[in-house]
Amino acid sequence: MCELKRKIVSLVCAALFLAPLSAQDRAFEAGKNLSIFNSLYRELDMHYVDTINAEKLIRTGINAMLKSLDPYTEYISEAELEDFKFMTTGEYGGIGSIISANKDKRIVVTEPYEGKPAALAGLKAGDIILSIDGENLQGMGVSAASDKLKGRAGTKVKLEIQRPGEEQTRKISIKRELIHIDAVVYSGVLEGSGGKTGYILLDGFTSKSSLEVKNAFLDLKKMHKIESLILDLRDNGGGIMEEAVQIVNLFVPKGQQVVGTKGRQPSSEKNYRTSVEPVDTVMPLVVLTNGNSASASEIVAGALQDMDRAVILGTRTFGKGLVQTTREVPYNGNLKLTVAKYYIPSGRLIQALDYSHRNADGSVGRTPDSLTGVFKTANGRLVRDGGGITPDTIVEAKSLPTFLYYLVMDNAVFNFATQWAVDKKTIDPPGTFTITDADYEAFKAFVKQSDFTYDRQSEKVLNNLKEMAEIEGYMDTAKEEFAALEAKLKPDLNRDLEKFKSLVVDQINSEIVTRFYYQKGKVVSSLRNDAQLNSAIDLLKDSATYKKLLSPPTAE
Q: Is residue 204 part of a domain?
């Protein structure tokens, strides 16, 4: 009897321990810990050996607290608010250019935007900005320099630049404008499609993206008489949810549910439906995705897949099914916080990572496929939740070697393109331009003269394997094999420049084309050898296969 009582008491205690805290208890715990935090800071401020930077220290604490929840909940200070607004509107006051820092930590113009003040004033990629409004930029970071270039539309900024190939510096005055970065980077008719397939590359979901997609689509239909469309959402990290709903609305009837949200608060439960008449509900449509297609991109791809309105082609998407909103906090700051999860028409949640249950090391695991649920599209096709959007047709992108990554990050390609373009006035159109074999030989010599060095991940892994083989006593019997493999994996610049020539040439072509045809030209150049795009074109040519992919499953 006593044993039974002890078990009952233990169970009751365990239940009390596991039971969620009441609102009163939660308020007490919050107050207690805030009091501890305040006391800790006061002691540090009074007694720490060095003077404490209050803003930096407390901001570190705030960031760590929010990071423990998920990557999307963050504090946005007043100073950072303009950058946040740019992310949602695509607009800012400035000159319209991208800048970066070179090896010598000088500020370099990476790319002026077509038709924007910087380009119209003659600023070119490769120009080194020496001063802004008379202030020397030596030692200044990219962020600080960028802030100085931005400003109210209508104001002027004076730059002193050093152009490669010129001894004398140049002084340029540029009038700032309200810069709008288009979400639709490029639209046009694709080569290889017989003039029948249109293409729209969407880079983000800002406040005007759905209108841009609509206008691009209507233009392709009216001017080019397209019969099918490819919507490219690869590397599109998302943005405004309502814009995703409106883009889906272009292709499906009015009144269809596109996405629903659910969270802790009743106010977070909402349903988003198509609200206007569509532009086209029958044209064959392929949506391209990859592992960097996230959030609003996944709403578009997932909703169109669930409605059997489009074939999704490429690789599995990121898997972000979380909804954020902003709340004002003191001193003109904002808290961007996750308030809900979203569900697409089949009822599935595509969130792939569970930030509320972390591993012992703090990392977050992806939902195993075995734990995902099965749902059905409108036609009864089987789809899964919990792992992003799995394409109807999986086509892997061309794998790029780390050698190319090092060439790009070392600015070898950028600097060669700058040198190559110094005395060039025009080049062939982006769809046909390519450097010559003589140009590539010049590039090889340029790389060697620049003392370019790189390491290979395979060599690092081999060294780790050798260390383990020595520890476990296998090195003596495998010494010859290790030596042979080491010789093959040892970095060899001449060999790798030849081995990866076609990929390096593509990268050089893209960089040079950008100098003359800007971002749109860069897109056209990159699409020439795009395996996923070519697969999409082939699929749209094969109407039988396209229809079969969207048809109800046949009974076996």
A: yes
Q: For the purposes of burial, counting CB atoms within 10 Å of the CB of 5, is it exposed (0-12), middle (13-18) or buried (19 or more)?
A: exposed
Q: Determine the Cα–Cα distance for residues 271 and 552; give it in Å rounded to an integer.
A: 26
- The answer to whether residues 267 and 311 belong to one domain is yes
- Going by C-alpha positions, the residue among 94, 241, 251 that lies closest to residue 181 is 94
In a domain, 173, yes or no: yes
Pairwise CA distance, residues 554 & 556, whole Å: 6
Task: State the residue range of the domain holding 482.
Answer: 457-489
3-state secondary structure (DSSP) of residue 281:
coil
Tell me the three state secondary structure of residue 348.
Answer: coil
Q: How far apart are CA 312 and CA 286, in angstroms?
A: 6
pTM given for the model: 0.88
Same structural domain, 116 and 240:
no
Residues in the chain with pLDDT < 70?
1-21, 360-361, 456-457, 489-490, 555-556
Q: Which residues contact 219 (CB under 8 A, 6 or more apart)?
A: 187
Question: Does 167 share its domain with 241?
Answer: no
Compute the distance between CA of residue 244 and CA of residue 273 in angstroms, rounded to an integer.
11
In a domain, 174, yes or no: yes
One-letter amino acid of 129 = I
- Residue 436 domain-assigned (yes or no): yes
Q: Which residues are catalytic?
A: 295, 306, 320
Identify the residue whose tokens are 């001193």: 331
- 497 three-state secondary structure: helix
For the chain, counts of helices (H) and of strands (E): 18, 21
Tokens found for residue 242: 């309502």
- Within 13 A of 341's CA, how many CA atoms are on the CB side? 17
User: In the numeric block, which tokens belong to residue 236?
Assistant: 């599109």
Looking at residue 532, its pLDDT comes to: 97
16-47 pLDDT, tens digit each: 445 566 778 888 999 999 999 999 999 999 99
pLDDT, tens only, 50-109: 999 999 999 999 999 999 999 999 999 988 888 888 888 889 999 999 999 998 899 999
pLDDT score recorded for residue 7 = 54
The number of residues in the chain equals 556
- List Cα–Cα distances, 461 to 48, 176, 421, 477, 490, in angstroms: 44, 50, 39, 19, 12
Same domain as 160, residue 131 = yes
Host H or E run for residue 467: helix 457-472
Spatial distance between the Cα atoms of 348 and 209, rounded to a whole number of angstroms? 25
Rounded to 5 degrees, φ, ψ at 260 are -125, 150
Domain count, the chain: 4
**Of 180, 207, 223, the domain-final residue:** 180
Determine the Cα–Cα distance for residues 527 and 520; give it in Å rounded to an integer. 11
Encoded tokens for 336? 């961007």
- Does one domain contain both 385 and 273? yes
CATH code of residue 244: 3.90.226.10
Q: What's the confidence (pLDDT) of residue 93?
A: 94
CA distance 352 to 234: 18
Indicate the residue among 162, 180, 198 that finishes a domain.
Answer: 180
CA distance linking residue 59 with residue 41, whole number of Å? 12
Between CA 496 and CA 448 the distance in angstroms is 12
